[in-house]
Amino acid sequence: MGVYVDNTLTYVVNGTSLDTNLAFNPGTYNTVVEEWDYCGGATFTSIGINVASQTGVFVASPVKNSTVTSPVTYTATASTISCSKGVASMGIYVNNLLVYVTSGSALNTQVNLSAGPQSTVVEEWDYCGGASYTAINVTAQVPAPATISMTADPLSITPGSSSLLNVSATNATQVTITGSDGSKYNLQPDGGSQTVTPTATTTYTAEAIGSNGNASANTTVDVIASNSLNSINHVVFMLQENHTFDDYFGMLNPYRAANGWNVGDDGKVYDVDGIDDKLNTISNPDDQGTSYPLFKFTSTCVDGLSSAWLESYGDVNRWDFASTRSILMDGFVHIAEGYANSCANSGTCSGNFTDLTGERAMGYYDQNFLNYYYYMA
Predict the structure, then answer these.
(1) Quick check: pTM over 0.85?
(2) Mind listing the pLDDT tens digit for each residue in 134-148?
(3) Do residues 165 and 179 lie in contact, with contact meaning Cβ atoms separated by under 8 Å?
(4) Of all residues in the chain, what percent are helix, strand and coil, respectively (each to 5)?
């Protein structure tokens, strides 16, 4: 909805109602209150008004006895019928102290107020020595200081790559990012994201400007030559001796958490899909129906397991070898049991098997056995 005064749109508000004050000098005005709907239609009502000449100070803002945030906008007009020369100047008193004066019959300014109840007065002085005033008592609140934080993802890049700066700010009227390379970016008052592609290691400073104090935050994006060892983000181990990931690194999560190595430079927690949260939920049965849960090995000397393709295929579903079978992952003990008994019965395998049930297929190592591997991972 909106209000026109003499064919000039002077006020607009969203929604189906309006409630506002408009200041008028003495005289006759043609006003229109109009609505616009979401379908492109509109209706209006015309209201003619006549503003009589009178002596006084008419304050549009702030409202009497309201709670306001400093600095406070004061908007007021004044008129006089006792002095033909008119209003000479206007001023604002705060707790009996004159803090602002302007020439003419209108003022529009901001005044800094301390927190708490404040007695303010808007006064006019005419050219004939007369004066009038309006008292406006308000309760002022001081806005909280600005805050800001910034992260970069990733913190290290190779030449030609980009990093994303994420900025979050509160109680700010302006937010900027400046780089030590001379770059500058303007963001919304609540922050936002900015992609940067520095050609050399650059420190970025995000600054939040607020009405009650400023704040800043820094982050550095390292640009590392692609042929430098420092550009390596991950080291991939090729596990030999046909061990699964869970067998070697299933307990990596608690090891990394205990040493504080599970949190990246970006503050995020990174975990692997291990077995530390599945120790009491995963098991496999042997062919006699005995179920074996996961357990920690007590020795590195363990009976061998077959690494053949057919046996590995059978680990997925112990009784079904069809290509459309369900992925049950219930055949590890079954395959280990069959392999051990086959070797024991045929006598063609080297060594003697001590585990003929296949239980060893459910065993795992941790950092106590593989301390170097765990440290490097």
Answers:
(1) no
(2) 999 999 988 888 999
(3) no
(4) 10, 40, 45
